[in-house]
Amino acid sequence: MKARAAVLGAMGAKPPFAQSKPLSIEEIDLEPPGKDEVLVRIAAAGLCHSDLSVINGDRPRPTPMVLGHEAAGVVEEPGQGVDDLKKGDHVALVFVPSCGHCVPCAEGRPALCEPAAAANVAGTLLSGAKRIAWRGNTVNHHLGVSAFAEYATVSRRSLVKIDPALPLAEAALFGCAVLTGVGAVVNTARVSPGASVGIVGMGGVGLAALLGAALAGAGRIAAIDVAPDKLALARQLGATESFDGSGATAAEDIRSATSGGFDYVFEMAGSAKALDLAYRVTRRGGMTVTAGLPHPDSRLSVSPAQMVIEERNLRGSYYGSSVPARDIPRYIALYRQGKLPIDRLMSERLTLDEVNLGFDRLASGKTVRQLVVF
């Protein structure tokens, strides 16, 4: 079938993207679903820093590629072997399609699925297949999803069936921002009630982590960013205090104001500098969790002696250490109960033709979570 999609021809474009146009809106050819695959009509797709990192080359991926990995849609056609989804079902798309058989999956850690990681790097679906073509050439999938398109053929393992009463534009956020941010708090760190929490980076994932900290019953939640408008939004969403993280003495100032730092600090900005700040404002005996994804060549310098003497914990959190089939329905239920107001993270709504402009906004740090709505 034919579908309109945003195709990244090559990485390394320079902003403003509205002029350089790294993403060209093209008519692609989409193969029908194979065994254990599903054709999905995309309803909404979020713009995430992970997409931006592919555009600018910080996260190398094979091109050409249809970008987009945070989305929700409607099942159009289940493929052979898919008997638990039918046409018309609403689904959230998941960018780590767990195989269910490798060691991490067997341990209940599907976010670390080994075949999925290999497929995502290679630009294929979980099966190894590629279902997109453009001008007679094969096109790569982005994280098994490729949601900046009217339709997507994906692995059944990339889908979680959701409550059809939830608006699909809101449902899109649960596939990345919510799983990553809330999951880092409740799954990776297991924040305890009354604990103090600092969050570095108030983008969509950082704000989701803030909502997760409030949900977990944190007694003190500090937002740390360089943008005053994002700090103001964080305070509206439940931050008990906020700090400007841009100054040369920011770490010292924050530690002084908090009597030594926070029990848990989450780095969600995707830079080694932000992670260094997060580590430095974590108290003795505390835990620093990073879910940001800076350039692969970035490095962090820490003192091993300090880690021992102060019993520090430094942990990575990929996809919020989530089990999507378990966590997405739970988070949606909490949202509908008013306990997880992720709709407050939504900013501009775009058409597919405006996607390059949207990435200019994202690169400038002047937006939270934009959505391409079909």
Sequence-ordered SSE layout with sheet pairings:
Layout: E1 2-8, H1 17-20, E2 23-30, E3 37-46, H2 49-55, E4 65-66, E5 70-78, E6 90-93, H3 103-106, H4 114-122, E7 132-134, E8 137-141, E9 151-155, E10 159-161, H5 168-171, H6 177-189, E11 196-200, H7 204-216, E12 220-225, H8 228-236, E13 241-244, H9 250-257, E14 262-267, H10 272-280, E15 282-290, H11 304-309, E16 313-316, H12 324-336, E17 346-350, H13 355-364, E18 369-373
Parallel strand pairs: 4-8, 11-12, 11-14, 12-13, 14-15, 15-16, 17-18
Antiparallel strand pairs: 1-2, 1-4, 2-7, 3-5, 3-9, 3-18, 5-6, 6-10, 7-8
Helix pairs in contact: 6-7
Summarize the structure.
By secondary structure, this protein is an alpha/beta fold.
Global mean pLDDT: 97
The major sheet is characterized as: 7 strands, mixed
Whole-number tally of structural domains: 2
Helix and strand content put the structural class at alpha/beta
Q: What's the count of strands?
A: 18
Inertia-based shape: globular
Radius of gyration: 20 Å
The helix tally amounts to 13
Stretches where pLDDT is under 50 for at least 5 consecutive residues are none
- Based on the coordinates given, report the CATH architecture of the largest domain: Alpha-Beta Complex
Can you tell me the CATH topology of the largest domain?
Quinone Oxidoreductase, Chain A, domain 1
CATH class of the largest domain: Alpha Beta
Report the helical percentage: 25-40%
Looking at CATH, the homologous superfamily of the largest domain is Medium-chain alcohol dehydrogenases, catalytic domain
